[in-house]
Amino acid sequence: MFIDSHVHFDDFVKDETLAKYLENAKEANVNEMVAIGGSTEANTLSLKLARAHPGCIFGCAGYDRDLATKDYDLSELRGSLENPLVKAVGETGLDYYYTAETATEQKKLFAENLALAAEFEKPVVVHSRDADEDTLALLKDYSKDWKSDPGRLGVLHCFTRDAAFARKVLDLGLMISFSGIVTFANANPLREVVKYVPDDRLLIETDAPYLAPVPMRGNRNEPAFVVHVAKQLAVLRGDSIDSIANLTAQNARALFSL
C-alpha cells in the first residue's frame, strides 16, 4: 500500500472531480493521503476532507510563504492545530526563487509556524526553494525547541537539492520526500540523492495537482500517480516496489501519527 504524503486537493474539490481521483487512488493501492494546508481556505478544506474521509485523508494546517506580506491570524491557525485530525503544520517555508524581496517577512512567518509546531508537537511540512541557508538556520532553532519524538520533527517536501543539503536536513532530524521531479529527464543529480537517504527517512508524494511524473507528463497529477515515483525510487535504490511502498508508508504513519 502507498501513502501520498503531500496532496493539494483544492482544485479537485472546485471542479467536483475528487470522487474520481479518490477512486483512481484506491485502484492503485494509494489508500492514504495527506491533505496539505497553507492558507485559511486550504486549512479549512484539509480538515473538512479529513472529517469526510476518515482513515483515508489526513489533515494539515499552516500558513505558507504566500501570506508573508498579507494579514494573517495566528490565533486562527492555533485553533486549527488544536484539532486532533490535523496531523502536521504546513505547508510552510521559504521561496526566494519567485519572491526573494519578501525574505524578511517569509522568515518571520516560517518561524511563527515552527514555533506552533513545537508547541503542539506536530511535525512541520517544509517548502524550501533557493533558500537553503535560511531554511537550515530556522530549522536548527526549531529542532532545539522540539520536545517530542525526534523522529517526528518534520519533512522537507518535494526535495530538489543536492546531497550536501540533504545531509544537513537529515542531520537536523527531518525526513525527505521525493515527488515526480525525480522521474524527469533533467533530474540526474537528484536521482543520486535518492540513493543517499536512509530507509527510515524516506517519503514519497505527488504534490498533486502539480508535477505529474513520467510517464504521465502532460496530465493533471493525482494521488494514484505516486506509484510512478515509488517505481523510480525502487530502480534507483535497487529495491522492490513493494519494499518502497511499505517503508515509505511506515515512515508516513510514524511522522504524521496516522
CA(first)-CA(last) distance: 14 Å
Task: Assign the CATH topology.
Answer: TIM Barrel
Q: How many strands?
A: 8
Radius of gyration: 17 Å
Give your account of this protein's structure.
- This protein has helices spanning 10-14, 18-27, 40-52, 74-81, 96-99, 103-120, 132-145, 163-172, 188-194, 226-237, 241-256; strands spanning 2-7, 30-35, 57-61, 86-95, 124-129, 154-156, 175-178, 202-204.
- It has 258 residues and is α/β, with parallel strands linked by helices.
- The protein has one domain (2-256): Metal-dependent hydrolases (TIM Barrel, Alpha-Beta Barrel).
- Strands 1-2-3-4-5-6-7-8 form an eight-stranded parallel beta sheet.
- Helix 3 (40-52) links the parallel strand 2 and strand 3.
- Helix 7 packs parallel to helix 8.
- It is globular, with a radius of gyration of 17 Å.
- The two termini are 14 Å apart.
Describe, in short, the structure shown:
The protein has 258 residues and is α/β, with parallel strands linked by helices. It contains eleven helices and eight strands.
